[in-house]
Amino acid sequence: MALFLVGGTVAFAQSKQLDEIGNLPDHPRILMLKSDEQIIKDSLLTDSRWMAIHQAILDESNNIISLPVLERIKTGRRLLDVSREALRRIFHLSYAYRMTNSDKYKDRAEKELLAVSTFSDWNPSHFLDVAEMTLAVSIGYDWLYNSLSASSRETIKNAILKKGLDVSLDDQYNDWLRSSHNWNQVCNTGITYGALAVYEDMPALSKQIINRSIESIALPMKEYGPDGAYPEGFTYWSYGTNFNVLFLSVMEKLFKNDFSLSAIKGFLPSAQYVNNMIAPSMDCFNYGDCGDRTGLNPVMFWFSNKTKDSSVLWNQRIFMKQANLKSLTQNRLFPAIMIWAIGTHLDQVMAPQKNTWTGQGVMPVSLMRTSWIDKNAIFVGFKGGRAGANHSHMDVSSFVMESDGVRWAIDLGPQDYNSLESVGIDLWNRKQNSQRWDVFRYNNLAHNVLTIDNQKQHVAGYASISNSGENPDFMYAVSDITDIYKNQLNSAKRGIAIVKKNFVVIRDELKANDKKTTVKWSMVTSANVKITGKNTIELQKDGKKLTLKVESPVKFNMKTWSTQSLNKHDAPNTGTIIVGFEAELPAGSNNSFCVKLIPDKAKYTSTEIPELTSWNKFK
């Protein structure tokens, strides 16, 4: 799967996987064959849970019929909201028609298909918009093909060709082919679905595009290695991986072969990464450009079937029980669950056997909890990595922590992209002096990390999880973060542990360079806070209490800081505050700080915390 240069651009050494393929099956051929319809219908008769989900899709399709047809309205530089809504509507309506043969669903889907097909373009300057629209139109075209009028088929087919496939061949728009992030997965999938939809009309072009996609999509899939920790975090795992699996699913369905893509190291194990990223509160560890919201994720059912590991569905089982089914239909890929999950018996799903999960890679992560069953369990998410990676923040060595059903240490998450782009912020330049790092939520001042002399983290620096252990009395992870504070400290290490299932400790060991240094230790919280002593801060939220206690031979001052930025472009961060301390480190000195996060009912809090080099003994 090598790349080579042709005429100044990067081209793919075309694979021969599809050269022997003749005609494909008749429509419908994408994702759900005609024979699959009866399998789904039979399953609905034996499982009331899946019948309820099926009915929710029909109900939402009825609701879509009453909505105005989509128009080409951009938000900033994006048409993405329209493309995503088109995908949601057309996927739901097309499924409803195939399951019921009711013309009302076909007629409305056809209106949406014709409306978007007559847009001037699908906004190729932001190619995600093209990819999702091509996916939407291709599913509708393929699934409704035999019921569409000849004129509608011609209009829709030409839109797929001209606004989707042809544009993907234009070098000014297809740099995603060489990327190793979610754009590659989404764009290759959307364009491949387009190629499959019009295959009988353009077999040579379709083969070229599908072969190209098989080669290209391997690039982001390798980023899951070696263990499954996805560099762009929870939200973008869900985005990129759902589309990636749409690609793998259609390959398997048509060719009985995914061309060894799912065997790429780290891809299948990433299901447990995502499962472990969800805390007892059902919010996720939301580092980088990710929000903390979670929800039912159809692709997890594909992973469960593929890996024969039903424990990856532990959180999905909870979502299925708690969710308002109508809310689930707002997920544009929701109908895929009827393809990937039918036949799954959620009552037989067991919790994962381990309470810890650690993965290395571009963005190493360590996740630990005291229980999968207890909603009041202690949970910690801790990360390494580098700030210069795609969708990253200056949050290397940051953490989130919750107990008693409360998230005490939070991540503010990203700011709406358009709110920053619209005022001229160069948000996507990740160099050290980029404007990106002047956005409050993106730099280290707004994360649960150290700040040295008010300087920013080193974006080219990298920190692995150098050590971890799963002893129930001392679950821990350690990271050498020296490279992140290049020219700021001579050395820096951070370890985080859950001690005796009672409290959390964050231990920092720092060696100052040849001048006096001021270190700021920060933790963002949405709790009400009060400094209660020379080394303690009390946090209260939802009737629960947590004590932050600092232990160190170094003199320090407990402090709080506002999360309200003076910059007009920054989000207000209402209802949050930063707690922690400041200390001065003498030139050349060795220093250590232990911060204990102690839930109200915790015991054994006087436990002495050894040096990080001794944590190995707890493995």
Describe the structure.
It contains 16 helices and 19 strands. A hairpin with a 5-residue loop joins strand 3 and strand 4. The radius of gyration is 26 Å and the shape is elongated.
Features:
619 residues, alpha+beta, eight-stranded antiparallel beta sheet, elongated, disordered N terminus
Poorly predicted residue ranges? 1-14
Which sheet architecture does the biggest sheet show? 8 strands, antiparallel
Tally the beta strands: 19
Query: What's the total helix number?
Result: 16
SS-based class: alpha+beta
Q: Give the spatial strand order of the biggest sheet.
A: 9-10-11-12-19-16-15-14
* Distance between the first and last residues' Cα: 40 Å
Helical residue percent band: 25-40%
Mean pLDDT: 94
Radius of gyration: 26 Å
What's the shape? elongated
Taken as a percent bin, the fraction of beta residues is 15-25%
Brief account:
This protein is an alpha+beta fold and 619 residues long.
Map the helices and strands.
Elements: E1 3-6, E2 9-12, H1 34-44, H2 48-65, H3 80-100, H4 103-117, H5 127-144, H6 150-168, H7 182-197, H8 203-216, H9 218-221, H10 233-255, H11 270-277, H12 299-307, H13 314-322, H14 325-328, H15 337-340, E3 356-359, E4 365-369, E5 379-383, E6 399-403, E7 406-409, H16 417-421, E8 450-452, E9 467-471, E10 474-480, E11 491-499, E12 503-511, E13 517-525, E14 528-533, E15 536-541, E16 544-551, E17 556-562, E18 577-585, E19 590-599
Antiparallel strand pairs: 1-2, 3-4, 4-5, 5-6, 6-7, 8-13, 9-10, 10-11, 11-12, 12-19, 13-18, 14-15, 15-16, 16-19, 17-18
Helix pairs in contact: 2-3, 3-4, 3-5, 4-5, 4-6, 5-6, 5-7, 6-7, 7-8, 7-10
